TrEMBL record:
Keywords: DNA-binding, Transcription, Transcription regulation. It comes from Neptunomonas japonica JAMM 1380. SUPFAM superfamilies: Periplasmic binding protein-like II, Winged helix' DNA-binding domain. This is LysR family transcriptional regulator. The keyword DNA-binding applies. Pfam families: HTH_1 (PF00126), LysR_substrate (PF03466). Residues 1-58 form the HTH lysR-type domain. InterPro entries: LysR_HTH_N, LysR_subst-bd, WH-like_DNA-bd_sf, WH_DNA-bd_sf. GO terms for molecular function: DNA-binding transcription factor activity; transcription cis-regulatory region binding. Belongs to the LysR transcriptional regulatory family.
């Protein structure tokens, strides 16, 4: 049993496909099949059920998966720790960033980082904050730049870098646009356009309404803030947007309620040794 074999097992388990696993690992599908067959022989257990094109874990496979991830991540962590001793900044860096941060915060930082550390092989994913959060929590990513969770898992180290002041907004011709003040109760009578219910951003907003025993009236849900801004601007509903995204097509509503702030920053797993590359990127962010 070696890390290549376990990595193949993890890839098949997560993708539910031998062909997709082969693509992820940059090897042939037959090589993946051979590694799985070797692992099943070593453990004397069938790890996958193959019904047509569908690949699912057996009970033994489900039992092995978290242990396999722990082993692979521990070996990678040891490799990073040994590599860090040289002080050289190079090698792979797995990073995810939310769409908003990728568009509005990250470009100048990445430009500087890639110029200063050209030997770093940056693997950058654009994910929703919640997906990136779970990837860090489960050891699949070294770093993530996201909207920070209101109540993070104790295993997650988070650092706020930017703070978005969120404002209630409507289109200029919306019925509420002409009012000097608008209560949260009044907002519940109109359609809201917000990120999904599972997102950290909607959780922050919903908490303010829940404190007043009010329910959100969410008519449209999308996790792309630029899309939300467009839909609000054409009169499809109200929303909350960062001050930096508010333009002349929108009217800010004064609700008299406590200001809503959204913290953006980076996270990593507390038990994971950061590579020199990750540490340098964290230094730039800080």
């Amino acid at each position: 049993m070696d890390t290549n074999t376990l990595s193949a097992f993890i890839a098949v388990a997560e993708s539910h496909s031998f062909s997709l696993a082969a693509q992820q690992l940059f090897i042939t599908q037959s090589a993946v099949s051979k590694r799985i067959a070797t692992l099943e022989e070593q453990l004397n257990q069938k790890l996958f059920d193959r019904i047509g094109r569908k690949v699912t874990l057996t009970e033994a496979g489900r039992e092995l998966l978290p242990k396999a991830k722990t082993i692979v991540n521990a070996i990678k962590d040891a490799g990073r720790a040994m590599g860090n001793l040289s002080g050289v900044v190079k090698g792979p860096l797995s990073l995810a960033a939310s769409h908003h941060i990728s568009l509005h915060r990250l470009p100048p930082i990445l430009r500087r980082f890639t110029k200063e550390y050209p030997e770093v092989q940056l693997s950058l994913r654009f994910d929703e904050s919640e997906i990136a959060y779970n990837s860090v929590l489960h050891g699949d990513l070294e770093l993530a730049l996201i909207t920070l969770a209101p109540k993070p898992d104790p295993a997650i180290h988070s650092k706020s870098i930017w703070v978005d002041q969120l404002k209630y907004v409507v289109a200029q011709d919306h019925p509420l646009a002409s009012q000097k003040t608008v209560s949260l109760e009044e907002l519940t009578h109109y359609s809201a356009i917000l990120p999904g219910a599972s997102t950290f951003t909607q959780q922050i907003v919903a908490e303010q309404f829940q404190k007043k025993s009010l329910n959100l009236n969410v008519a449209i849900s999308t996790n792309y803030l630029d899309t939300i801004r467009m839909m609000v601007s054409i009169g499809l509903g109200w929303s909350l947007l960062p001050e930096t995204m508010i333009d002349k097509s929108l009217t800010v509503l004064e609700t008299g309620s406590e200001p809503i702030k959204r913290h953006l920053g980076y996270i990593h797993h507390r038990d994971r040794t950061l590579s020199n590359a990750a540490s340098k990127l964290v230094d730039m962010l800080s």
